[in-house]
Structures are given as structure tokens and as C-alpha cells.
Amino acid sequence: MSAWVQGTVVERIDWNDKLFSLKVDAPVQPFVAGQFTKLALEQGGERVQRAYSFVNPPEAEHLEFLAVTVEEGQLSPRLQDLKPGDNLMVSPRPSGFLTLDEVPAGRELWMFATGTAVGPFLSILHSEDCWDRYEKFILVYAVRHQADLAYLEPIRALEKAHPEQFRFVPVVSRESMEGALQGRIPELLSRGAIQEAADVPIAPARSQTLICGNPDMIRDTLAVLEGMGLRKNLRRTPGQITMEKYW
């Protein structure tokens, strides 16, 4: 199979002036919720490519990607300029191990995300078979400003559809927001504020955690969780912490 296939933009959703989603039609191989692929555009005779996680579940009609425009970036500003009917290149081969198949059993599954790294978790939460895997799912979604919280309506719909099984904890670091915690995930975890907001404890015997986002958050959150007795999840030595850098 070719390393690239042509994709066609079906819809662009602008969450704010820099944060946007693209819905794309492209013939990619079957993927598992939580995986990613690559998007690319030609620029000056060179193919500029970056990895983006699928936001959509595998059974969805269209592929969907969440992105933020980086002013000095080579690709993201051009992606944000795309309109329905425009073309881009998509790698047909999904990758990544931030999937439920890689996570051991437990009572609760915690999902810690910063910014656009919420994408793979939304793919997992909207997949058909995820809800049989754990008693509770807790999504902790951290951003700088309230306007950076994408997909709030679908997340609230998950709360209504699974009121006993799903908990949503929004975190905003640079302003106050009603119903959200203010600060950074590691500090809020270390003082128990996130656990209190979710009304769910974290302990090695019951908790599995997925962490996806910027390297600083991952490093600091890992340290806090290890201080609680959790350890990295490896195939040869299963644990409670599964991570993927989103940078």
C-alpha cells in the first residue's frame, strides 16, 4: 500500500481562533480507538507532515482530527486554512499504543489530557465496546483558558448517557471557570482536588491511568502517581500508568 492516500476535507470546526477540527474522508486501514496517523501537505516542493490522533471512534463515517495552530508552524496554519472540498495527504497506516488493549484490568480508568491530547480519549470514549471494560471512566481535561475546551457538548452528552459510570473534571490553569478546577494536573492530583471532584480515589489495586499531553505534564503527573504507589505499565511488567507524549 502507498505511504500516502488522498483525503478530502468534509468539514472544519473552529473552536476558537487557533483551535480547530477537521473531518476528513480518506481510505485508511482499520484502526483502534486511541491511535494516530499522519497528515501532510506539499509546501515548496517538500511534504510537510505531522502526527494527529483520531478523535472519531473506528466505526464513525468520517475521520476527525483536533489541532491547534502554531504561528511559526509549517503545517498547522495551512491545515486551518483548509475548507470543505480541499485535499490533503493522509497516511493509511494507523500507529500508537494508547489503546485499551494495552491497559490491564482495574475498577476505574483515569484519562489525563492537556489541550489537543484529549483527542484519543474522545475516540476511546465514543467507541462501541469501551463501556464494558471498567466500572468508571474519569476524563481530566486541562487547558489554559475556558475557550480552549473543545468538544464540551459531546462530553456533556457522555455524562448524561453514562451518569453512574462517567466523570468529567475540566481543569483551566489561567482563569477561573465555574465547575472547573484551576491549576495544573500534577498539583491538583497531589493535594487530592481531582480525586475529590471526581469522587473517586486513586490506588494501585483499583486504578488504571492513561496520560497524554505535553512532556512537562506527563513527567510531573507520572511522579505524583508513582508517589501514590502506581507504576509504569509495560508489556513485560504490567502496571497502572500508560503514557503517550503529544508534542
Q: Any overview of this molecule?
A:
Strands 4-3-6-1-2-5 form a six-stranded antiparallel beta sheet. The chain has a six-stranded parallel beta sheet with strand order 10-9-8-7-11-12, sandwiched between helices. The protein is 19% helix and 32% strand. It folds into two domains: 5-90, Beta Barrel (Elongation Factor Tu (Ef-tu), domain 3), CATH 2.40.30; 100-245, Rossmann fold (3-Layer(aba) Sandwich). It is built from six helices and twelve strands. The protein has helices at residues 76-80, 119-125, 152-161, 185-190, 193-198, 215-227; strands at 5-14, 19-25, 36-43, 46-53, 63-68, 87-90, 108-114, 136-143, 166-172, 181-182, 207-213, 241-245. The protein is of the alpha/beta class and 247 residues long.
Count of distinct structural domains: 2
| Rg, Å, rounded | 18 Å
Termini, distance in Å? 28 Å
Alpha plus pi helix count: 6
Give a quick account of the main beta sheet: strands, pairing sense, barrel closure: 6 strands, antiparallel
Quaternary state, please? single chain
| The first-level CATH class name of the largest domain | Alpha Beta
Principal-axes shape call: globular
**Percent of residues in β-strands:** 25-35%
**CATH level 3 topology of the largest domain:** Rossmann fold
**In CATH, what is the homologous superfamily of the largest domain?**
Nucleotide-binding domain of ferredoxin-NADP reductase (FNR) module
In a few lines, what is going on in this structure?
Helices cover 19% and strands 32% of the residues. With 247 residues, it is an alpha/beta fold.
